[in-house]
Amino acid sequence: MLRFLSLLLLLTALPALAKPPRLTLFITVDAMGSDLLLRTKPRLKGGLRQLIDSGAFYPYARYAYAKPRTAPGHTTLATGANPWRHGIVDNRIIDRATGKPERVFPDPAHPVLEAPLSMEDVSPATLLAETFADRLRLSTQEQGKAIALSGKARSAIPLAGRLGQAYWYDETVGKFVTGTWYTKELPGWLKSFNAANPSEAWFSKTWEPLLPRTEYVGEDDRPYEGEYYGLGRVFPHRLTGGLPSPGPESYTAFAISPLSLDVVVKAARAAIEGENLGKDEVPDLLAVSFSATDRVFHQYGPNSWEMQDTLYRLDKAVGDLVALAEKAAGGRANLLVVLTADHGGAAVPEHWAASGVDAERVDPRVLSKGLTEALRAQFGGDVLATVEELDVYLGGKTLEGGKVDGAAVRRAAAAWLVKQPAITLAVARDDLYTMPDVAGLVEPLRKGYYPGRSGDVLFVVKPFHVISAEPSGTNHGTPYAYDQLVPLVLAGKGVKPGIYPREISTTDVAPTVAAVLEMSLPASAEGEPRYEALAPSR
Questions:
Q1: Residues in the chain with pLDDT values less than 50
Q2: DSSP of 385-433, one letter per residue?
Q3: CA angle 288, 290, 293 (to 5 degrees)
Q4: pLDDT value, residue 16
Q5: Which residues of 364-398 are buried (b: 16+ CB within 10 A; e: fewer)?
Q6: Is the CB of residue 253 less than 8 Å from the CB of residue 229?
Q7: How large is the angle between the packed helices 364-379 and 406-418, nearest 10 degrees?
């Protein structure tokens, strides 16, 4: 009854919207959990803070599945569905025959344009659910445009869906590219943008603190921060990647730094102008995913000076991007802005441990080795166990040839895992839908599971335990609040400003966008529009 009344209220409000916004600007910030934004918000003064203050702010939107990661996070935001429906379970899955990882958006039939041939993410061929970009294209009889830009292919692809256009930064060439799924030739506006060599212009520069050093909390130099690509642990950070001239390592160093946020905004400007977004009454979509935040998070951790500086720079970048969108749409009255994140993230486990928290770094290679040895001792043969985040993939000719009972091997693997000090729960896929969910951790595993792509055994580590093969930095991908909770901000046409502290689902984001655009929900959506934040436009 409550659901019925909620939908009834929404339907009575929608006719007053008169017409949908000309342009929807959908912003995702990679690895910006609720805790990170909330503790930084008092020090923000730019566009991000203004968007929060003028819009409908939900501090607590939760991913309902166990492994909040970049590819499934963007896909859930775009589809309104969990991985059990859209099929994108992680950034990588494991080839059981070889034990080697492979990307979740591969497509040999549609290679990347103007970059070396690879098996990286290139197309939405493996995406199993409709996105709001697809729905926009179909609802407007393909007159409305849907453009997605990101520093990562696995972010841009789900935001563009099957019917939009996705462009992403390729670290091997230092330019924005796309795949032949979307087009056979880069558009003129992107060719011109790339011709200016946006990454090479930063080669001789350094990443310096944006604000006076007194504005940063804690210490700059911490022993558990990463030092990859020649960036070092302390400011200033050189962007050469250790090279004498621009090349892949320097392009990656630049992509890690928040200075790359500016290049993403400039690429968005080129897309707005080149595609004439927001210029007529047919709704258009521009989806922009900022990836530098995630790269800084992984290398330095969310409490670092580097992450604080990245949020200050993001504050400005969001303001610049919203200003571009407002101008393109002819004002905020013709614009809907949505800002959220694909996942949160854990603190560096050594930082937690130093503060007295029962925290630990859990090396998946150690788990893989120990589990493989235990299974071979019990079942013989060449059984191979490979741990990928919270999934265990089992392979080897012994299993493939049916020489042993596969279910028995999977259950034995789960029994071994749950005896490990860092693990609180483990379940074979055979028992996933029958195991009692006493502590509420099995349901997130179910919502993140897709047959054939997910592992043979699923497990959950204890709180504050971080799965990472690296000796420094941190990670994300557990069913705890610091990984699952992200903010959501809605602003502009059709939005009722205010603070909405109730917890909502990230599957509500796509349906809410669809409601403001006055179109049907994406086909596989599980969530519902947040009617309490929708209001008639003036």
A1: 1, 4-5, 7-17, 537-538
A2: EEEETTEEEEESHHHHTTSS-HHHHHHHHHHHHHTSTTEEEEEEGGGTT
A3: 165
A4: 41
A5: beebbeebbebbbeebeeebbbbbbbbbbbbbbeb
A6: yes
A7: 130
